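Record format v2
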Amino acid sequence: MRKVEVITQILNANDLTARENQALLKDHHILTVNLMASPGAGKTSLILQTAKALAGRARLGVIEGDVASRIDADKVASADIPVIQINTGGECHLDALTVQKALKTLPLAEIDILVIENVGNLICPVEYRLGEAIRVVVASVPEGDDKPYKYPGIFTAVDAVVLNKIDLAPYVDFNRDAMREGVVRLNPRATIFELSCRTGEGLRTWADWLESRWKNL
Amino acid sequence: MRKVEVITQILNANDLTARENQALLKDHHILTVNLMASPGAGKTSLILQTAKALAGRARLGVIEGDVASRIDADKVASADIPVIQINTGGECHLDALTVQKALKTLPLAEIDILVIENVGNLICPVEYRLGEAIRVVVASVPEGDDKPYKYPGIFTAVDAVVLNKIDLAPYVDFNRDAMREGVVRLNPRATIFELSCRTGEGLRTWADWLESRWKNL
């Protein structure tokens, strides 16, 4: 039999920095979540509601990624959560180096769960590890039930799918089973949460899961 | 006074191909629209409703751009509209060369208005000309009123902004004036259309505008 040559993938610069971030965050016993979604799916609302749901149980910190503006960071800061805004200029995703800079200014000793809100985009962010422990995609009911079929890369890569804005289901055409089937087919191990940041429905289950992931870090 | 040296930007390969596409489409007296939006803003619904509104007045043709799947092209084909699906694999935008290939298989003599539905993304598509005459971004009410502030590049580059899903306004927090102000501040010459593909409200004004742009080509 011939010898099989195995080529090990060399980590790129981003992956190496992501590993450094991961080690630093682990040292601080911080659960880091890379939160990805389309523009307007409700990432910032989810962060604000999660902080409320976990009040007294776990302390949140946030890194906000946007092409431009500090709208989201201002909202988070108003809720008295430590936050850094990253503006990417034109880039469609965050990268590990920019996150590393942000980590240097965040009060890590005061944070249990760090949520990194990525740039609103279902394509680019998935290619760049940031140092996170878990990856979550937020989809929303008015976006339609076909998102897993159209953006398989991101739905395959995540640990959890949060389906937000379920309160809008009566007013739009949305096939809940088609959406769930799309996720399960791509990624059977992903946990699916259905919730509404507006009404609060389903938030507790999500927050409990996040807390248990942090406790089992 | 010193002589001022002017450096003219050399067109890149994509721009050159886009110009070829533009010339071909102009020869066929086709108005070409580069339709951009977030995932789930309603680009395909807008195409289907526009085709209905223009029935007997102008004939549509469609190029569908998606990372994966042929869901949108199937919907368009069901409405008996000539359509080509482009799957970009992982790319977050269409480019002129791929569109050029698609143009070779479309029945151009049977098309008055060609809508190129770009990949669902508010960042990458704006950097790539495809050969279009006009560029349109679709935003939707449930995405929120802050999109112009967060994605200034695309809102600055377009000829028109279509605000879709206005029927959902009573059920979400959406400040219409903030959204309009955001657009006007970046791009005072952009025409803003408010409509609902679900109820049909506002579609006629949009369709009339498109037809007049075609007639004045």
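Strands of chain A lie at 31-37, 60-66, 83-87, 113-117, 134-140, 160-164, 191-194.
Helices of chain A lie at 13-27, 43-53, 71-78, 96-105, 147-150, 152-157, 176-186, 203-215.
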